[in-house]
Design a protein that fits this description.
CATH topology of the largest domain: Growth Hormone, Chain: A
Order of helices and strands: HHHHHHHHHHHHHHHHH
Shape: globular
Structural class: mainly alpha
Number of strands: 0
CATH architecture of the largest domain: Up-down Bundle
Strand content: under 5%
Number of helices: 17
Distance between the termini: 38 Å
Radius of gyration: 20 Å
CATH superfamily of the largest domain: MFS general substrate transporter like domains
Helix content: over 70%
Largest sheet: none
CATH class of the largest domain: Mainly Alpha
C-alpha cells in the first residue's frame, strides 16, 4: 500500500484535518487561562485556586499521555483521535453550564483525560501514513495548528467574555470544537499502514523505568518542567495585573496579548538552526538568558515595556522548549516515543505545579513575586543544563 504523498488530495485532507485537530485541542486546553480573573471575581476564590482550572487539565493530560499512545496500538489511531476530540468538545460545552467552581474543575479534569488522545497519537499516525519525504511539512502544519489554536482560542475567549460573559465564551469554544471534530472525522483518511498490537503494560512500565534511570534524560525532563512552569506562571497572572489599575485594560485587549505567541514560531526554528552550528548547550543557555531578560523587563511600569518583556520572554521560551525536546530524541537510544512522552509528562506537570504555585506569590507579593518564582525556575533549568553537560559533554551538538 502506498503512502500519502505531497501534492495529492489525500495529503491536503490530512493536513487540514490535523490542523483542525490541533486547533481544537489547544483551544480547549487553554480556554480558561484568560478567564482566571473572572473566576476569582465570580466564585470569590484566590488567583492560585482559579489557576486550578488550567492546572487540573494539564496534569490529567500529562498522566493520560503516558498510556494513551500505547492504547492506540490496540484500538487504532483514527478512532481514538475522533473519540478524544468529540469527548473534549462536548465537555467544553458543558463547562458553560456548571453551577459552581467545583463542577468546573471536575469537567476540566475529564477534558484533560480526553484530550490526551490527540497529541499522543497524531504524530504516530503521520509517521505511519505520510511518505518520509513529505513528513516534515506535515508535522510542521500540525504543530502550527497547535499554536494557532492555543493563541486564537485565548483571543476568542477574551473577546466573548468581554462582550457577553465567560459562560458564553467557553460554550462557543465547545461548539466550534465540535464542528472542527466532525471536519476532522470526515477529512482524515483511514489508516492503511496501522498494524494492531497487544497492549503490554509491563513492557511500557519497564521502558519508562529505563528512561528514568538515565541521568541525562532526567536533567532534560527537569528542564522541561521548569520551562513550562515559568511560561504558564507568567501568562496565568499577567491578566490580573493588566485588568487592574493603572492599566485597566479590557478582557478583549488582554486576550489579544496572546498574539505574541507568533514570535515563538520564528524562535523555535531559528534557534534550532543555530544549535546545529553552535551546539544545543550554548543555545539553550542563550535562550534561558533571553527568558530571564524578558521576565525582568515586565517589572517595568510602562505598558509598552511590559508587553515588550512578554514578547522577549515568549521568544526565549519557544526556543528553549524546541531545543530541550529535540535533545530528548537525540539522547534516547531506544523507545524514543516513550522518552518523548515522559518529557511531555514533566512539561505539563510543570505547567500544573508552577502555574498554581505562582498564584500564591502573586497574592502575597504581587507581580514581583510572580517574577521571583519564574527567575527561580530558570536558574534551576540553567543548573540542570550545566549538570547535563558534565554528565555527557559529547551530546552538546
Amino acid at each position: 500500500m502506498s503512502y500519502i504523498q505531497k501534492g495529492t488530495v489525500a495529503f491536503r485532507k490530512t493536513n487540514v484535518a490535523l490542523f483542525f485537530a490541533g486547533f481544537c485541542t489547544f483551544a480547549i486546553m487553554y480556554s480558561t487561562q484568560p478567564l482566571l480573573p473572572e473566576f476569582s471575581r465570580e466564585f470569590h476564590i484566590s488567583p492560585a485556586v482559579a489557576s486550578l482550572s488550567l492546572s487540573v487539565t494539564t496534569i490529567a493530560l500529562a498522566v493520560s499521555m503516558l498510556f494513551v499512545g500505547s492504547l492506540s496500538e490496540v484500538k487504532g489511531r483514527k478512532p481514538l483521535m475522533i473519540f478524544s476530540l468529540l469527548a473534549a468538545s462536548l465537555l467544553a460545552v458543558l463547562t458553560a453550564f456548571v453551577p459552581n467552581y467545583h463542577f468546573l474543575l471536575i469537567l476540566r479534569v475529564l477534558q484533560g483525560l480526553a484530550l490526551a488522545g490527540l497529541p499522543a497519537v497524531a504524530m504516530a499516525y503521520l509517521s505511519e501514513e505520510i511518505e518520509p519525504a513529505s513528513l516534515g511539512i506535515a508535522m510542521g502544519l500540525y504543530i502550527s495548528g497547535n499554536s494557532v489554536g492555543g493563541m486564537s482560542g485565548r483571543i476568542i475567549i477574551g473577546m466573548l467574555s468581554d462582550y457577553f460573559n465567560w459562560r458564553v465564551a467557553l460554550g462557543s469554544i465547545g461548539i466550534l470544537s465540535i464542528l472542527a471534530s466532525f471536519l476532522f472525522w470526515y477529512l482524515l483518511p483511514e489508516s492503511k499502514h496501522f498494524q494492531p498490537r497487544s497492549f503490554d503494560i509491563g513492557k511500557l512500565l519497564k521502558s519508562m523505568a529505563n528512561h528514568l534511570k538515565d541521568p541525562g534524560l532526567l536533567c532534560l525532563y527537569g528542564i522541561g518542567f521548569f520551562l513550562m512552569g515559568s511560561f504558564v506562571t507568567l501568562f496565568n497572572y499577567i491578566g490580573y495585573q493588566l485588568l487592574a489599575p493603572p492599566y485597566s485594560l479590557s478582557q478583549t485587549i488582554v486576550g489579544w496579548i496572546f498574539v505574541i505567541y507568533i514570535v515563538g514560531t520564528f524562535s523555535s526554528t531559528w534557534m534550532g538552526r543555530l544549535a546545529d552550528i553552535h551546539g544545543r548547550r550554548q543555545m539553550l543557555w542563550v535562550a534561558l538568558l533571553i527568558m530571564a531578560t524578558g521576565a525582568g523587563i515586565t517589572l517595568s511600569t510602562p505598558l509598552v515595556l511590559k508587553i515588550l518583556g512578554i514578547a522577549i520572554f515568549t521568544f526565549g521560551f519557544f526556543g528553549s522548549h524546541s531545543l530541550a525536546s529535540s535533545w530528548v530524541a537525540h539522547r534516547a537510544i531506544h523507545d524514543k516515543a516513550q522518552a518523548s512522552s515522559l518529557y511531555l509528562f514533566f512539561y505539563y506537570a510543570g505547567s500544573s505545579i508552577g502555574g498554581t504555585a505562582g498564584g500564591t506569590l502573586w497574592s502575597a507579593f504581587g507581580w514581583g513575586g510572580v517574577i521571583s518564582i519564574i527567575l527561580g525556575f530558570l536558574l534551576l533549568a540553567l543548573f540542570l543544563s550545566i549538570l547535563l553537560n558534565s554528565i555527557t559533554p559529547d551530546i552538546n551538538r
